[in-house]
Amino acid sequence: MHCHNCIIDELKFEILVEDKDHPQMISYIINNLNRTNTWHCTKGKILIIKESGVRDFLDFSKDHMNQEAIYFRIDHGEWRPISEVYGILDMRWVDELIMNESVICYFQPIVNAKGEIYGYEMLSRFTREDGSLIYPNEVFTAAKKRERLYALDRLCRMTAVRYAAPLKKKAFINFIPTSIYSPEFCLKSTVQLANELGADPSQFVFEVVETEEVGDIAHLKKILAYYKKKGFKYALDDVGEGYSTIELLSELMPQYMKLDIKYVQGVVSDSGKQRIATEFLLGALQIGAVPLAEGVETREDFEWLKKCGYVLFQGYYFGKPSLIPKEERILDI
Predict the structure, then answer these.
(1) Sorted alphabetically, which SUPFAM superfamilies does this protein's record hold (predicted)?
(2) Of 57, 149, 166, 261, which shows the fewest CB atoms inside 10 Å?
(3) Residue numbers of the domain that contains 52
(4) Alpha carbon distances (Å) from 2 to 138, 182, 186, 188
(5) Residues 107 and 241 placed together within one structural domain of the fold
(6) How far apart are CA 147 and CA 196, in angstroms?
(7) Which of 20-24, 133-137, 183-187 is predicted most confidently?
(8) Cα angle at 125 between 229 and 139, to 5 degrees?
(9) For 160, phi and psi rounded to 5 degrees?
């Protein structure tokens, strides 16, 4: 059983009409939508219309109503001008992508100081019917606008577990904290899948994505506590900006902390980046987290970070994301 956010039902748009002539117009609209079975219900001044009827409503309203007095929202979100609804309708393709599970995983190696494969970051890649790839940012943007972020995050998380389980190495899997309403409910399927695959939960490291601003730290702590209780590990990205105090880090107690790419690339010759990288390292060690430098692209940066004390490394210098995971030691280190 899934929550409604993980099920791709037809969207229902709440339409608020503040046109002074709206009572008469509303009756016309309802009659027409009834004939096409696309009207859902009415709540006061609000029409609730199935997505399949929204374009008909738009065509009618352009000719007979003041569009500046019409607003819409989805799933009790914020009211927005009706003109913005076109973009959401044009992104319906992301629903098909999720329903068809059109996602694969690429593996990017994570290595230790000796160049030995420690694990992989699991990176979701999305495919069209012809097999070509869609940029992840395009997919997540569309999902967010259509209130599908919850379902997309779950699909990516479950797919990554399936791809990673046979490798028996650490798998770093991104997740979006705001997509999880209740850890006990929303993450239950992840735990069940790992068990079904016979995977050791400690193999999986769930990573808070750096692009998602986490405003509710209490909720994040609840999620991480659930992961820990079930035997999973977790990592934090972009720690220097999103989680600025050692007190907060001590509360979250991540097993891994990732130094952001902007402090990694060129660190060998930038004193400012060196200072931040050193402070980050000390902060990680203070709370017992493994420091990982991501975005390493040159041997010079790698050598500096290794000498500084970093334990794990990730970046194009060791290998680009690929469908087939590297399983051997990186030989040129």
Answers:
(1) EAL domain-like
(2) 166
(3) 4-90
(4) 25, 12, 8, 10
(5) yes
(6) 30
(7) 133-137
(8) 95
(9) -65, -40
Q: How many domains does the structure of the chain reveal?
A: 2
Same domain for 50 and 176?
no
What integer pLDDT is reported at residue 329 of this predicted model? Answer: 67
Cα 315 to its chain centre, rounded Å, is 20
Which residues, 6+ apart, have CB-to-CB distance to 224 below 8 Å?
A: 234, 252, 253, 254
Q: How many helices (H) and strands (E) in the chain?
A: 14, 14
Which of 47-56 are b and which e, b meaning 16 or more Cβ less than 10 Å from the residue's Cβ?
bebbbebbeb
Instruction: Compute the distance between CA of residue 77 and CA of residue 75 in angstroms, rounded to an integer.
Output: 5
Q: Give pLDDT tens digits for 195-223.
A: 999 999 999 999 987 544 566 788 888 88
**Per-residue confidence (pLDDT) for residue 23, from 0 to 100:** 62
The region of weakest confidence among 66-70, 81-85, 236-240 is 236-240
Q: CA quadruple 296, 109, 333, 280: dihedral positive or negative? A: positive
